[in-house]
Amino acid sequence: MIAALIAMGISKGDEVIVPDYTIIATANAVLMAGAKPVFADVEKETICLDFDSMKSKITSKTKAIMLVSINGKYPTRVEEIISFCQKRNIQIIEDAAQSIGSFYKGKHVGTYGDVGSFSFSMPKIITTGQSGALVTDNEELYHKIELVKNFGRE
Fold first, then answer.
1. Burial class of residue 121 in the structure, from the number of CB atoms within 10 Å of its CB (0-12 exposed, 13-18 middle, 19+ buried)
2. What span, in angstroms and rounded, lies between the C-alpha atoms of 92 and 82?
């Protein structure tokens, strides 16, 4: 997620909205990119980001949200979250660490936002020790992530 945030241009002075129910690594990635995590409430039904709480946290400094899916669940108003962010040019990073192989309306969880992040650490569905993957369908963003991952080397 850190590589995605850096590739998206998230840095000091920026804010990223994060649900208040997630692993600390989600907020830590924001801090490590130099930005400020802003915590929003989650829905009782899904334990995922609450749309109204998210909207109330938006400021002129908000550059992205972390859309965390919990065990394949999405927020009940995920389409509204995505539409809201797209209209305001707020980037979406999906933390789909617990949701690999899950679908929402026929599409893989982790592919609705600008970048999807998957974890392959020990307690996850697919494990490789300690690693992960980022996915995006944006070629320019993909290239920037590659540069971050490869220390700027082409």
1. middle
2. 8
pTM of the model: 0.88
CATH of the domain at 68: 3.40.640.10
Bridge partners of residue 16, in order along the sequence: 37, 64
Specify the number of domains making up the chain.
1
Question: 6 φ, ψ to 5°?
Answer: -65, -45
Answer yes or no: is pLDDT of 85 > 90.
yes
User: What phi-psi label fits residue 106: left (phi over 0), alpha (psi between -120 and 50 degrees) or beta?
Assistant: left
| Set 12, 44, 124, 144: catalytic member | 124
Note whether residue 154 is domain-resident: no
Whether 105 is catalytic is: no
Cα distance between the two ends of the chain = 20
pLDDT of residue 7: 95
CA count, 13 A, side-chain hemisphere, 30: 25
Q: pLDDT tens digits, residue range 5-27?
A: 999 999 999 999 999 988 888 89
Which residue carries 């108003």 as its tokens?
77
Confirm whether 124 is domain-assigned.
yes
Whose structure tokens read 């490869």?
150
